[in-house]
Task: inverse folding
């Protein structure tokens, strides 16, 4: 049974950094594609950063150059380092997982497992 638990969110000022963590159980990174999504009030859930089983990373345009996704296989933990935060980054952030297939996973509907989310609020 795959379980994901996010942590690390908070209320911060614009320009600072935060690191989100996602503790995973019941999966091995060698088979799973992982991702961070976010959802702001009244908006659809959008993919922010992705990491495939071979370590390939992909980012939404809004995250490129500011966010970094990584994983620690020994700790079974996924991270999202977020730098230079902006008010428009305010959202609930979710960790997601799916068994990798041939096609890249980019949509929320592509992912099978989700955490409960951690809130990030950025004020100007």
Result:
């Amino acid at each position: 049974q795959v379980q994901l638990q996010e942590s690390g969110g908070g209320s911060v000022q614009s320009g600072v950094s935060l690191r989100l963590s996602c503790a995973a159980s019941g999966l091995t990174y060698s088979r799973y594609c992982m991702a961070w999504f976010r959802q702001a009030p009244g908006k659809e859930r959008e993919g922010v950063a992705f990491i495939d089983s071979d370590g390939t990373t992909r980012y939404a345009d809004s995250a490129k150059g500011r966010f970094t996704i990584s994983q620690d296989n020994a700790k079974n933990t996924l991270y999202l380092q977020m730098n230079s935060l902006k008010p428009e980054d305010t959202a609930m952030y979710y960790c997601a997982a799916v068994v990798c297939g041939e096609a890249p996973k980019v949509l929320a509907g592509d992912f099978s497992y989700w955490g409960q989310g951690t809130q990030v609020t950025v004020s100007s």
Notes: DSSP finds no helices and eleven strands in the chain.
